[in-house]
Amino acid sequence: MSQIRCLFLYLDRTYIASTTKTGSMWNMAMELFRENFNRYDIVWQKVLSSILDMIKKERIGEIVDELFLQNNIRMLMDLSLYHSSFEQQFLRQTQQFYSQEGDRLMETINVFDYLEHVATRVHQESILRVKNYFDKSTKGRLQSIVERELLTKRVDNILGKCFDYFQSVDQFQDGDYDKFSLLYRLLQKVDKLEICAKYFTTYVKSKGSSILRGRASVYDKINMISAFDSQNDEVVDHSFEGDEQFVDGLKDGTDHFINARENNTTKLLAKYTDQVLRNSVIDDNLLEKAMFLFRHLQGKDEFEMLYKRDLAKRLLLNVTHKHAEKMMLSKMKIECGAGYTGKMEGMVKDIEKSGDLMKEFREYNMGVQPPLNINVNLLTYGFWPSYIPANVNLPAAFHQAQELYNAFYQTKFEKRVLTWQNSLSVCDIEANYPLGNKKITLTLLQTIVLLLFNATTRQSHSFTDILINSQLDELELRRTLVSLSCREYKLLRKYPPGDDIKPTDEFSFNHEFYTDKEQLSMTTATLSEVIEKNSRLDTTVLFAKDQQIDAVIVRIMKSKTTASHGFLLNECTGIVRFPVTAQEIKKRIEVLIDKEYLERGPDDSYTYMA
After folding, report:
1. Hey, which end of the chain has fewer CB within 10 Å, N or C?
2. Domains of the chain: total
């Protein structure tokens, strides 16, 4: 037709243009061609089948005559058959092709290779093929079919496989961040980011919990959680382009795994900070790792009690760096305010002030020879954990030393009274052994028991004899004797041997004791046990929690008067500021019923009794 048109170009522009309805030889030819083309359906079907077959072959990677294909499709456009007869058939074939391809590839290739393939297919269909062959109006529907068949219909399967992979990886490589980016870009096109954010949140919860419940050491767990958080920040900021859905999802997931009761994060964090603050080298990065968990921690009241107990141990055993303690308290103060750290800061100041008072004490007793060289730490009541004083029969020299300090203290603070915590006291002694003298650091209670063997010619003492002479509590004495006769350094011999202490057991001084070490310390484990047993942690924390739960329940019931059990559980869980179980709330409801604040109603409901 192009050649014929060129031959009759003058005729086409003059006579045909002015005397015919078609207006041009080209239009007339197209009209005649369309009429005859439609008349012979078998010809149309062969042309259509040939075009669709060539498109399919090109999709599977075979080489086709692109110019021939291009001309045939343009012919359909010129005949006005593209939209009316070709496009629907083409789109139907496209849907079938990509449905089958998606089924096959999801079972045979890696999920990230699959995502790369999806991105390639979208580009091929919506950019390259539309540019080369199809009408621009086809682009939107064509791209929609490819994305629906390869992506939208399979989004749960794809996300499940993606996050299963991320769950199994200990540490991301650079390529893993690119995988997240590709996933984000593809799902953004099909408006599926919301479901991706949910999968991401679930992944953060699961992965974080698996780290905390693992068998790694406390130190390693915190390092792994810190690395996990940094990794997630990188994913959200760069791979997910700072999308708010993922920012919120990361926060929710992190809050969840840190505060899940079964993960014991509060105790884990307390152990970690205790280990870090016992180091002689200050490392602010380690403190910041602790603060990451602290910021997310909801049970800060329980952590405060644990931290306070461990702080007491570090200060009294002198196994901490004061500057590091102040740094950590300063960080917590920024997060929670002065009210949270006030007592703990007071504990550190007590130790510092005690050193200044000891200088004054020595100046006050200048010229007086004390029976013992003593060093006293003054602990302000209310700052420190509560300790139960241990009754003990002090040797005369110890008693005189305490009285000397009492007299000095009264000159400084007339209206104050000192209570001596003998169970927390430490003594340095020198022991003379046939195999070599040793300098040994003991608790005061260990020292008093050991001195009983120094003040008599008797070869041995029974448990009952030691109990009468020391006047110690029986359980305290059992712990002390175990530490002296059944542990690594056996300063005493026990008859019969064994860890179980009985009233009839006999103890004697171990003259054959020997160790390569010239100086021994037997206080750390023993004093830690004393501090832990006397600090009354659990009772204080649980009592405070019970009071808060009771107050929340009463407040809810006052406003509602009557409420179902399920409603009360949901409301209470949402209001309390720490993790709480349904069983704990149920227990407090029963207590309030017994106290006649609430009355049980029909259909598992409760009524508030004014």
Report:
1. C
2. 2
What CA–CA distance (Å, rounded) separates 47 from 364?
Answer: 116
Is the residue at 254 inside a domain? no
> In terms of domains, do 506 and 550 share one?
no
Q: Is the peptide bond before 496 cis (omega within 30 degrees of 0)?
A: yes
- Write out the residue range of the structural domain in which residue 593 sits: 537-608
Residue-wise pLDDT for 21-45, tens only, equals 666 766 777 776 677 666 667 777 8
- CA separation for the pair 484, 469 (Å, rounded): 17
CB 409 within 8 A of CB 416: yes
| Residue 583 belongs to a domain | yes
Closest CA to 429 of 368, 373, 362, 486: 373
Instruction: Assess whether 432 and 496 both reside in one domain.
Output: yes
Q: How many CA atoms lie less than 13 Å away from 442 in the CB half-sphere?
A: 21
C-alpha distance across the termini of the chain, in Å: 99
Per the domain annotation, does 183 fall within a domain?
no
Alpha helices in 365-457 (DSSP H): 396-412, 444-452
Q: Is residue 179 part of a domain?
A: no
**From the DSSP assignment, how many helices (H) and strands (E) are in the chain?**
28, 9
Reported as a single tens digit per residue, the pLDDT across 264-316 is 899 999 999 999 999 878 889 999 999 999 999 988 888 998 999 999 989 98
Q: Helix (H, G, I), strand (E, B), or coil: what is residue 606?
A: strand
- Prediction pTM value: 0.75
What's the CATH number where 593 sits?
Answer: 1.10.10.10
pLDDT digit string, tens, across residues 480-499: 898 899 888 899 999 998 88
Mean pLDDT of the chain: 87
